[in-house]
Fold these 2 entries.
Entry 1:
Amino acid sequence: MKHLIALLAVMGCLAAPAYAVNPDEVLDDPVLEERARDISAGLKCVVCRGENIDESNASIARDLRLLVRERLVEGDSNDQVVDFIVERYGEYVLMKPNRSGANLILWATGPVLFLIAGLSGALYLRRRAGAKDGTQALTQSEQARLNELLDE
């Protein structure tokens, strides 16, 4: 049983990533194909959440892969290809959105809200520690009544 588990662990480690690139999409020039793979790794499929266009089997991902390769064959640089696709589909297609403009608000919101929550919690705990505990001593009549109830 130990050998089977070890074999499965080794096979899991050696498994190559599954690409959805079809053989008819692969460029003849290995340098251009490598550039296409690098660009595709940074472009998100607009249908599949969290998958780049190299890993997605969606038809729109295939179209984007073909578009990337077409632009590279025409002589565009990597940045020009990415800019062309972002212009056409919006910044949603980027796996790592830019940290400028309106996106800066999105990048900053999480840490700012975390700081606000931390400060609010610290102020609450500080006020709570400084507050009186809210207990008051019993009056003589209340103490006498309590003693009566306890004696019964």
Note: Residues 146 and 152 are 10 Å apart (CA to CA).
Entry 2:
Amino acid sequence: MTNKRGGGSRIKINTVARRLHHYNGDRLIKEYPVAVGKPSTPTPPGDYHIKNKIVNPGGMLGTRWMGMSIPGGNYGIHGTNNPSSIGQAVSHGCVRMYNHHVEELFPQISIGTPVHIYARSGPSSNPAHKTGGGGKTYTVKPGDTLWQIAQSFNVSLEALVAANNLADPDRIVPGQVIVIP
């Protein structure tokens, strides 16, 4: 749990893609869709750690709370009583997860687990857009499936999954940026 470089559990949160990645060392264990802070109360980027954990905190915090060591506020990774918010930028800075996802992650995370929050920029809302490396990206729209995206860009589903390091190709969310290989 403690070694940031070699082994142990760690969490990376991309606030642009609205995804939480759980790693054991350098191996991705699972990727989850999340809700993050709205523009007026953003989720602060930086390197933190889990400082406390609570089972059944109640109300809008859902079924689990993992407090982060972010200065100047009470920020956490938690469940939600509003599952339709997942995939959106709507919180007061916390990271919301579906209750069943936070319940799955919770027992795997210890006090002290490193959390890296970052904003990896992708293209804006243009559906197809050139990246600096010459590849294209696509911003997922409501109702899209990865299979439909693969067909529309004439690439294989397997290539899309590999290019985007998707742990679960059935879980893409509106606003997520997909790299087209």
Note: DSSP finds three helices and 13 strands in the chain.
